[in-house]
Each structure stands twice: as C-alpha cells, then as structure tokens.
Design a protein that fits this description.
The protein is of the alpha+beta class. It folds into two domains: 2-150; 257-405, Histidine kinase-like ATPase, C-terminal domain (Heat Shock Protein 90, 2-Layer Sandwich). It has eleven helices and twelve strands. The protein has helices at 2-50, 66-69, 102-114, 146-216, 224-250, 263-273, 275-280, 299-315, 349-352, 362-367, 374-384; strands spanning 77-83, 89-94, 119-121, 130-135, 139-144, 259-262, 284-289, 294-297, 322-329, 333-341, 388-394, 397-405. The strands form three sheets. A five-stranded antiparallel beta sheet has the order 2-1-5-4-3, sandwiched between helices. α1 (2-50) packs antiparallel against α4 and α5 packs parallel to α11 (374-384). The longest helix has 71 residues, at 146-216. The radius of gyration is 40 Å and the shape is elongated.
Length: 409
C-alpha cells in the first residue's frame, strides 16, 4: 500500500512539475525570441534606410536620407555609423535619446577593424552586450543589448524562483491529491486486513473446541483413518489461523514499542536455534555477523523476520550445502543476507514471492504445511522498520537481502 501511495504521489508530482517547467521554458523562449527578432528587424530596417541615399556629393560620400537621420527607436539603443569607401566613419547617428558615447565609438572602430566580411551578428542575448549589422564601405548599425540582457536574466531568475516556490506548492497539492485518490483503496485495504484478523480470531475458538473434541474420540480400526484426517486438517487450519494472526500483527506494528536492541545478538541466537533442524537435513549454517550492531526496532518482529528467512533457506536448500547468514553495517545502513544453494528464483518471481498465499511449488508447500504467508510477514516487518527486502538468484545461490537505515526513529 505504501508503494501505491508513493507511485501515485510521484506520478502526480512529476506531471504537474513537468507542466510548470514547460511553461517556464516556453515563457523564457518566447521572450528571448521576441527580443531577438526585434533586434534583427531594427538592424535590417536601419540598413535598408542607409541604402536610400540621394545622388553623391563626391565619390566618398552620399547625403543621407532625412528619414534615416530622424528615425527614433524607443525600445532599443541603436546607433548608425556611416562609412566611406575607405571604411572611415564619416557620420554618426543616435536613434534614441542617448548621446553617442566614446565607448560606442570605440566599439564601432573595433568591429570595423576586426571584420572583413559583411555580416549581421547578434550572439546570445543572455551575455552579449552589443549586436550589429556591418556592411563594408557603407554602414555599421550597433544595438546596445545591455538592457535586453538584464531583462532576460531577470525573467530567468524570477521564473526559476517561482518554479522553486511552485515546487513547494506542487508538493503540497500532490500530497492532498494522492490522499484523495488512495483514500478508497486504503479504506478497502484496511477493511480487508480487519476482516482477516477478526475472522482468524473468530475461527480460533471453535477450532480449538473441535480439536479438543477430536482428541476425546475413541479411536477404533474402523474410524482411525477419519480421525487422523480430522486431526491433520485441524492442525493445518490452526497453523493457518496462527500465521494469519501473525500477518495482521505485523501490519500494525507501533513505533512506541520500538527500542534500541543489539540486532547482532538477536540474529546470532536465532541462527543457533536452527542448527539442529539444519543438521537433520544434512545442512550446515555458517554465520558472519558483525558484533554489537544496535538498531531501533521491535525485537520480537526482528526475531520473527530472521526465523522466517532461515527457515525458508533451509526448506529450499540442496542437501549437504551451507546456509550463510551475513550481517554487516556501515555509517548509513545495516544489511542482513541469508544465502542458500538450491532452488533458483526467477526475475518474474522475485516480487511475487512476497505476496500473501503465493507458492511457486504448491505440492511441496502443502506437504510441509506452508501457506505462502511467511515471506509476506517478513516483508511487512521490514516495511514497518522503513527497510527494503529483495530476493535474487545468481550462480546457483539464492540470496534474501534486507537493508535497514540506521538511526531511523
């Protein structure tokens, strides 16, 4: 259920965030494009006006059309430098209210000196200071793009800030939408768990009466077979109810019952209790447990987790093989591994085996009184401790790996 909530939340969060990012990108791109086209159009328009001159007064210079000299541009600082055939500046015009500064004149001379081809150069408006349209022996138009650059950078900073602020709002909204969407599922899941727990409790008493009554029956040759069948199935039913109750308990573990425990000692003791069972099946248990690893946990549940994993490893191990139990720790996490050589788990089954009542070998599990609840209980315990559990097979060995974050309380 936690996975469902996480997937729903992140799906909503990513979708809304993506729309917000796309809107911000679209806004900045559109603004940039508008400014770029505005600068380009003004440079082109001014160049066209320089071509509209009267007949020449002499061979070096043509008189300017009054339309060019009187043309004012409100949105940009544009300057026109008229050149003679030797590329000398013979006239300067400001098309804004600003006077032509020495800096602009110096910039014009540098452009003329460094360019030997006619070109329009605007550059990236986010860091360039000047754009120009240069035609050798005719004219040079320069646009001071400083204001445009500052405006674009301001828009970029503001949109980035708004995106950051928006992400907080999107996070809150996504949480609320997730809660609203998953509420019916959570209620249904809760009712299902309550039903299982209540049904198990209700069945426990009449089943105990039935088992006690069976024990009181007189066994004869005629009814021995049927009485044994009743005892066998009653025991199976009792075991199933017990496991269902265990499953219900692990789904409602309370943090107030968690304490600092020496998890190394818990695992070491539990491994020792399984040595006799392993010996009966010609198996050996080898442990590699780091000492004195403390973990904030529910002691009984961790003990149950280790029991389930070791029991599972013994049940599916090859004869005369080893069961390896490793416990290691670093600064951030605690890792428990239970490894056996035997039946491999396919990638398709690696998630299914933790589902309730899942059994990949039904005949084997029924014969051994198993119901596919052990690993489901183990997963509930791990999740209750904010950990992760997975199973995989490699090179003939199957590993159940549990990871807990340290100091999670």
């Amino acid at each position: 259920m936690e996975n469902l909530k996480k997937k729903t939340f992140w799906t909503i969060f990513i979708i809304i965030s993506l729309f917000a990012f796309l809107f911000a990108i679209f806004f900045n791109v559109q603004t940039y494009h508008k400014e770029y086209i505005g600068i380009l159009n003004n440079l082109t328009r001014m160049r066209n006006l320089t071509m509209q001159r009267h007949e020449p007064i002499d061979k070096d210079m043509k008189p300017l059309n009054d339309d060019l000299r009187n043309r004012k541009i409100m949105d940009y600082e544009i300057y026109t430098f008229i050149l003679n055939s030797n590329n000398d500046i013979v006239d300067k015009i400001s098309h804004s209210d600003n006077d032509i500064s020495n800096e602009i004149v110096t910039k014009a001379k540098n452009i003329i000196a460094s360019n030997n081809i006619n070109q329009v150069k605007i550059g990236c408006l986010y860091w360039t200071q000047y754009a120009y349209n240069y035609e050798e022996g005719n004219s040079l138009m320069i646009v001071n793009t400083t204001n445009t650059r500052n405006m674009l950078l301001t828009n970029l900073v503001i949109s980035t800030f708004l995106i950051g602020l928006g992400e907080v709002m999107i996070y809150i909204i996504s949480k609320k939408i997730t809660k609203w969407i998953t509420k019916p599922v959570l209620e249904s899941f809760k009712r299902e768990k309550e039903f299982v727990a209540n049904a198990s409790h209700e069945l426990k008493t009449p089943l105990a009466v039935m088992m006690a009554s069976i024990d009181c029956l007189d066994v004869t040759k005629k009814n021995e077979k049927w009485i044994n069948n009743l005892k066998s199935e009653s025991d199976r039913m009792s075991n199933l109810i017990t496991r269902l109750l265990d499953l219900s308990k692990t789904e409602y573990l309370k943090k107030e019952n968690f304490k600092q425990n020496n998890i190394s000692l818990i695992i070491e003791k539990r491994a020792l209790t399984f040595e006799s069972l392993a010996y009966e099946k010609n198996l050996t248990i080898k442990t590699n447990i780091a000492e004195k690893i403390n973990f904030f946990c529910h002691k009984e549940s961790i003990d149950e987790l280790v029991s389930i994993l070791i029991d599972n490893a013994i049940s599916h191990a090859q004869e005369k093989s080893k069961i390896k139990i490793n416990l290691i720790s670093d600064k951030s996490e605690i890792k428990l591994e239970v490894i056996n050589k035997g039946e491999a788990i396919s990638p398709e089954e690696s998630e299914k085996i933790f589902e309730r009542f899942y059994r990949n070998d039904k005949s084997h599990n029924r014969k051994n009184g198993r119901y596919g609840l052990g690993l489901a209980i183990a997963k509930n315990i791990v999740i209750a401790h904010n950990g992760k559990i997975r199973a995989y097979s490699k090179d003939g060995y199957t590993t159940f790996e549990v990871k807990f974050k340290k100091n999670e309380h």
